[in-house]
Design a protein that fits this description.
With 190 residues, the chain is mainly beta. The chain has one domain: TolB, C-terminal domain (Neuraminidase). The chain is 4% helix and 45% strand. The chain is built from one helix and 13 strands; from the N terminus they run βββββββββββββα. It has one helix at residues 181-188; strands at 19-24, 30-37, 40-45, 51-56, 61-68, 73-82, 88-94, 100-105, 109-113, 119-124, 130-136, 142-147, 162-166. A four-stranded antiparallel sheet has the order 3-4-5-6, with no helix packed on it. A four-stranded antiparallel sheet has the order 7-8-9-10, with no helix packed on it. It has a three-stranded antiparallel sheet with strand order 11-12-13, with no helix packed on it. Strand 9 (109-113) and strand 10 form a beta hairpin.
Length: 190
């Protein structure tokens, strides 16, 4: 994606659909998996690892893909949700039921979306710009939520804060990414 934050922290407009979805393998190889994104967000997998989700904030869409863990590839891009309001999709987390918890930038909420693309829960937030979330805590029932002060109203004193929300459903444990020793050496400049 193009940069949307200036050196001074100001907001930069992102124009065009020139972003791509990349795959980085443990040996450090980078491949383009899909194109046609403005601002790429929402990179999560279903509990069974059969579906990969990715969104484009500029287009206000979240896509679902078939995921092949053997070849580490995605295929069969399709719409999960499109033009969903309020706001636009930003970061997301996945729960054990296969529901996507999507933060809505400029939407002041988090939407829990079923695998069929239905909004099954809305969590209103005290600020407008909800940026990302992840499940944590010893039981993975705490949703940690980041927010942005960028584009926040003067009355949004909590904008840019980190929130913790207890949920009834358990979230997935964080995914792990393993780099090979040779890739780590290259990245470290050794």
């Amino acid at each position: 994606m193009r940069n949307n934050v200036g050196e001074d922290g100001s907001d930069l407009e992102v124009e065009g659909i020139t972003g791509s979805l990349y795959r980085v393998t443990p040996d450090g190889k980078v491949s383009v998996m899909d194109t046609g994104f403005g601002i790429t967000n929402t990179l999560v997998w279903s509990p069974d690892q059969a579906t990969f989700y990715c969104g484009c904030s500029i287009r206000n869409v979240i896509y679902a893909y078939d995921y092949d863990g053997r070849s580490l590839s995605v295929s069969n891009r399709r719409m999960l949700v499109e033009n969903l309001l309020p706001g636009v999709p930003d970061g997301s987390a996945m729960d054990v039921d296969g529901c996507l918890w999507n933060c809505r930038f400029s939407g002041g909420s988090i939407l829990r979306i079923s695998p069929a693309g239905r909004v099954v829960q809305t969590i209103p937030m005290p600020v407008s710009n909800i940026t990302n979330c992840c499940f944590g805590g010893s039981d993975y029932r705490t949703l940690y939520v980041t927010t942005a002060s960028l584009r926040a109203g003067d009355d949004e004193k909590l904008a840019g804060g980190l929130f913790a929300i207890r949920t009834e459903v358990r979230g997935l444990e964080p995914g792990r990414f393993r780099l090979s020793a040779s890739t780590i050496s290259v990245l470290a400049g050794i």
